[in-house]
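Sequence only, no structure available. Ideas?
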Amino acid sequence: MADPQKTLKRNFFQRLLGKPATRLPLDETCWKYADEEIVIDLDRAPELSQPGRGIRLESDCCPERVLVIHGDDGRFHAFPNRCTHGKRRLDPVPGAFTVQCCSIGKSTFDYEGNLLAGSAKESIAPLAVEQTEGKLRIKLS
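Reply:
I predicted one. Tokens follow.
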């Protein structure tokens, strides 16, 4: 199912500088962090309405950067947003059932966090995601 050969279309400079393709949410109030948990109001996060799309969650109040995606499998997935090779950010690869590092190495991981391709030496640990009543709950611990 996962296609480690499929990559995001990024130019050399975007990859060299590690510019992620995934944006921060348009409505920055669509999510909250408290007690080792992120809660996202899906009604206020239209970026997650379609498979293959995602958002980056980054804030001084949250202890780590998180990538949240609406996977091509129809489920929601979350990852600490740092590649195991160089700590660059990750992006979903639409149609490939994977996430990929934004750098030149193009380290690619499946939705379970398994390393499929690229220069990373380790897999990534996905975060637990629960969907209830229009909200996503992501456990950071």
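The domain at 12-139 is CATH 2.102.10.10 (Rieske Iron-sulfur Protein).
Hope that gets you unstuck.
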